[in-house]
Amino acid sequence: MKFIRKLYDWTLSWAETRYGSPALFVMAFAESSFFPIPPDVLQIALSAGKPLRAFWYAAVSLTGSILGALLGYYIGFKLWEMTQHFFFTYIPGFTQDHFSYVQGLYEQNAFWAIFTAAVTPIPYKVFTIAAGTFSVSLLTLVIASIVGRGLRFFAVAALMYFFGAAVKNWIDRYFNGLTIVFTILLIGGFAVIKLLF
How far apart are CA 161 and CA 152, in angstroms? Predict the structure, then answer.
């Protein structure tokens, strides 16, 4: 938890610089393929300081995330044989069982599987890379991601636009408990998605 807290604080620190928007873009891009902290964290911090720009930050998150999904797809499509050991060993959310399970979901309904991962705490990066590995239509990935991630990031933007700094203060106050809840959701995410398909 200390490591996650340090990573969270480091992510938030970008909100205090003039590079907040570029940092948000990079984090949203990276989270779609390997970075463990969701871009929502920085998006909330930036929006707390400037609520009127909340929807701009949502657009930055969405753009970075979709482009990152394309990188994830490329990793799965072209580089998976070379990189799978790294992902299975070092990236949270990646296991052989999860990967095989996602393959089954794609065989049932790739669009809804990607949409669900895009809008929930389920590790989205597993789905973007698996989409390339299992040759899901790139158009399906892009459309499902735009809808799911757009819904997620713009919902955060609306929350911050109307409630501003109070949301960030609440997260800071209950960070440890929220981390535990998020971890439970992360672990249970595949069980939840199993019920949906």
Answer: 14
